[in-house]
Amino acid sequence: DGGITQSPKYLFRKEGQNVTLSCEQNLNHDAMYWYRQDPGQGLRLIYYSQIVNDFQKGDIAEGYSVSREKKESFPLTVTSAQKNPTAFYLCASSILQQNVYGYTFGSGTRLTVV
Amino acid sequence: AQSVAQPEDQVNVAEGNPLTVKCTYSVSGNPYLFWYVQYPNRGLQFLLKYITGDNLVKGSYGFEAEFNKSQTSFHLKKPSALVSDSALYFCAVRSYGGATNKLIFGTGTLLAVQP
């Protein structure tokens, strides 16, 4: 079955540590996105990529980094510069052309600072 | 600027009653409109979309939405609510022909259905 997979489901980070969240899709989608969701809040765009080896900052990119070396993969690194990383992180993908199909979302990664 | 507004943070409805979750939008060009649902600790699931054609679109789980161009609205509706409909609902819009292909999401509306 085609889909988008995020791992791990739960992740714990110590102060000052970098952690990487995985996002893989086998839908042959061009574009991929990372969102952050805080309790009771909406979605805030961190980074997005519309083509391999290219990505753009979203609204809250500070303290995060991404790469897009393969079409299927768009990992997100939460660096030590992100002072409040505890949140629910969602990855999504979409067909780029016209985007009439909207986004397909992964099941999310809950990151907690310990 | 493109935007989506969901004016209600929470909607409360009794089981069996009709429900409406409101959404208004502002885009340049023709809008593509979407509704997603999110259950606790899960990703967003697609419910329905409006691209063109009939203003009343039907989606998953008995939900429907009405596109109203003059009021720039796309309200989500269901004739009879179920307790299992309780979840967070997001409206989203994309502008066809715009400079970006990104969807713009509303802030979400929490639907609480009481037994």
Write the layout of secondary structure elements.
The complex is a heterodimer of chains A (114) and B (115).
Chain A: E1 4-7, E2 10-13, E3 19-25, E4 31-37, E5 43-51, E6 54-57, E7 64-66, E8 76-78, E9 87-94, E10 104-105, E11 109-113
Chain B: E1 3-5, E2 10-14, E3 19-21, E4 24-26, E5 31-38, E6 44-50, E7 56-58, E8 64-68, E9 73-78, E10 87-95, E11 104-105, E12 109-114
Parallel strand pairs in B: 2-12
Antiparallel strand pairs in B: 1-4, 3-9, 5-6, 5-10, 7-8, 8-9, 10-11, 10-12
* Residue windows where pLDDT falls under 50 for at least 5 positions of chain B: none
- Backbone CA Rg of chain B: 14 Å
Averaged pLDDT of chain A, please? Answer: 91
Largest sheet of chain A: 7 strands, mixed
Secondary structure: helix percent of chain B: under 10%
Q: What is the subunit arrangement here?
A: heterodimer
The number of strands of chain A is 11
Shape of chain A: globular
Q: In percent, how much strand structure appears in the residues of chain A?
A: over 45%
Poorly predicted parts of chain A: none
Largest interface: A-B, 26 and 23 residues
| C-alpha end-to-end distance of chain B | 41 Å
Distance between the termini of chain A: 36 Å
Order of helices and strands of chain B: EEEEEEEEEEEE
